[in-house]
TrEMBL record:
<feature type="domain" description="UspA">
    <location>
        <begin position="14"/>
        <end position="160"/>
    </location>
</feature>
<dbReference type="Pfam" id="PF00582">
    <property type="entry name" value="Usp"/>
</dbReference>
<protein>
    <submittedName>
        <fullName>Universal stress protein UspA</fullName>
    </submittedName>
</protein>
<comment type="similarity">
    <text>Belongs to the universal stress protein A family.</text>
</comment>
<dbReference type="InterPro" id="IPR006016">
    <property type="entry name" value="UspA"/>
</dbReference>
């Protein structure tokens, strides 16, 4: 990316929102609605009846533990199917209400299968996929669900893992890049869009093994200036995911953007970073 270059303009894809009835899912729906309104994008809600859960209920030895009571009891297939129908209806009403408030058209797709597989089959390269970091069936206290892990690593388009936004004192969009990475432009474009929409400044963190590269920093700053965005560029020596998380927190990040091409994914550190950063995170291909 040079100073003469502008951020690439890409066609507006759909906003896909994964609904499962969990609290974070409903919060993610509101975020997805705001994004779709800003982009004037088509909205598709997705509700998946988890086939593995339904199959498990068919085995007599399978038991479930109540979230609040902690009491173990046999899984009841009829009760689970009734709960799925109730959650699907709740998803439909919530989707209609959120989009009607913003004057947006919407559609809801109901599927039965493995959640990640069904969503991947529906998603296109230009789509933004929005979901809560943990669904209703997730392990209590978990910060990253199994479906989120699969979609982050395999989705063709951008994935927004929604979490409760941090305190107001955190008011900066942070983009994490490799200084020699060819996929930087997409992550930078997403970061710029977030900074503009949220009226927040932008920090670009460049992971590097070779020290500062002022030319790259100048090019990025010139590009952001041309977009009317207040930004700064910092160089970050290659370090552990935990160390990177500390730097991001020190920046006062309200949201994080990183590319799947970031070396943290190759180093198996992405899970650690995503778990430690309990804030909205967008992962680009």
């Amino acid at each position: 990316m040079t100073a003469e270059q502008q951020l690439p303009v890409e066609p507006v894809g759909r906003v896909l929102i994964l609904l499962d009835g969990s609290r974070l899912s409903l919060a993610a729906l509101e975020a997805a609605a705001d994004i779709a309104h800003a982009r004037k994008a088509e909205v598709l809600g997705v509700f998946v009846e988890e086939v593995n859960l339904l199959r498990s209920a068919g085995y007599g030895f399978t038991r479930e533990v109540g979230r609040s009571s902690g009491v173990s009891r046999p899984m009841d297939l009829a009760a689970i199917e009734a709960r799925m129908r109730s959650l699907a209806e709740q998803a439909r009403r919530s989707l209609e209400r959120a989009m009607a408030q913003r004057g947006l058209a919407q559609a809801l797709t109901l599927c039965r299968g493995r959640v990640a597989d069904e969503v991947l089959n529906l998603a296109r390269p230009g789509d933004l996929l929005v979901l809560g970091r943990v669904g209703w069936s997730g392990i209590p206290g978990s910060r990253l669900g199994s479906t989120a892990r699969v979609l982050v690593s395999q989705a063709l388009g951008d994935v927004l893992l929604w979490a409760d936004p941090p305190m107001r004192s955190r008011n900066r969009i942070v983009v994490l890049l490799n200084h020699d990475q060819g996929a930087n432009h997409r992550a930078v474009r997403v970061g710029a869009e977030l900074a503009r929409r949220n009226r927040q400044p932008l920090t670009i963190l460049l992971r590097t093994e070779t020290g500062r590269d002022e030319r790259i920093a100048e090019d990025l700053l010139a590009c952001m200036e041309s977009e009317g965005i207040t930004a700064r560029v910092s160089f970050l020596p290659m370090a552990s995911a935990g160390a990177v998380a500390r730097v991001i927190r020190e920046e006062g990040a309200s949201q994080l953007v990183l590319s799947r091409q970031c070396s943290l994914f190759r180093e198996q550190g992405a899970d650690t970073l995503l778990i430690e950063m309990n804030l909205p995170v967008t992962v680009t291909p």
